[in-house]
Amino acid sequence: MWLCAAGGAGVCLLAGASPVGAATATANISAGSLAFVSTPPNVTFNDTLNGANQTVTATQALDVSDATGSGAGWNITATSTTFTSGGNTLPTTATTVQSAPTTACDASSTCTLATNSVSYPYTLPAGASAPTATKVFNAAANTGQGQQTATVTWQLAIPSTTVAGTYTSTWTISLVSGP
């Protein structure tokens, strides 16, 4: 059926016809991975003994990429060996996190910031052999997608009786799927 404009202007359309060249578009989007963007950086505490109990802090930026598209959430777990210098040690409860890490989307990413349910203060497990890791930070289901950095502020308690030296500890920090 032809429809023409009144007044004989010469404009006519064919009503009910399908558009010419109709097409369907498909987007195949595959799941990526859950991983640290870069290896978690080392942490260095610096202090000068003064005869009193002291606490010092150091930050650690943990850059997470959740490209799974699952919305499953994730958690960061940590464990460590005891800080030792020769035969001297710091207490196994010396390293803590007093408040929740700060989070921010990476510059190259639109992200859904993690909703964290870990309680603070948090004590980093330590022992002669590293004990079972515990959650230091997590992303609840349907949060934490994209690339974001969680910056942890670690606190180290140094008793007044500590012997001067360079104390070392091996930390194992893991990123695991699920809140």
Offer a quick outline of the entry.
By secondary structure, the protein is mostly beta strands. The protein is 0% helix and 40% strand.
Sequence-ordered SSE layout with sheet pairings:
Layout (H helix, E strand, L loop, with lengths): L1 E3 L7 E3 L19 E3 L17 E13 L7 E8 L2 E2 L2 E2 L5 E3 L4 E4 L16 E2 L2 E2 L6 E6 L6 E13 L12 E7 L2
Parallel strand pairs: 5-11
Antiparallel strand pairs: 1-2, 3-4, 4-13, 5-12, 5-14, 6-7, 8-10, 8-13, 9-13
Q: What do these coordinates show?
A:
The structure is a single chain. By secondary structure, the chain is an all-beta fold. It has a domain at 59-161 and 172-179. It is 0% helix and 40% strand. The protein has no helices and 14 strands. It has strands spanning 2-4, 12-14, 34-36, 54-66, 74-81, 84-85, 88-89, 95-97, 102-105, 122-123, 126-127, 134-139, 146-158, 171-177. The strands form 4 sheets. Strands 3, 4, 8, 9, 10 and 13 form a 6-stranded antiparallel β-sheet that branches.
Q: Mean pLDDT, nearest integer?
A: 92
What is the 3D shape?
elongated
N-to-C terminal Cα separation, in Å? 62 Å
Question: Would you identify the regions where 5 or more consecutive residues have pLDDT less than 50?
Answer: none
Considering DSSP H and I runs of 4 or more, what fraction of the residues is helical? under 10%
- The SSE string, one letter per element, is EEEEEEEEEEEEEE
Radius of gyration: 28 Å
Number of strands: 14
β-strand percent reads: 35-45%
Total helical segments: 0
Main sheet: strands, sense, barrel = 6 strands, antiparallel
- Class inferred from helices and paired strands: mainly beta
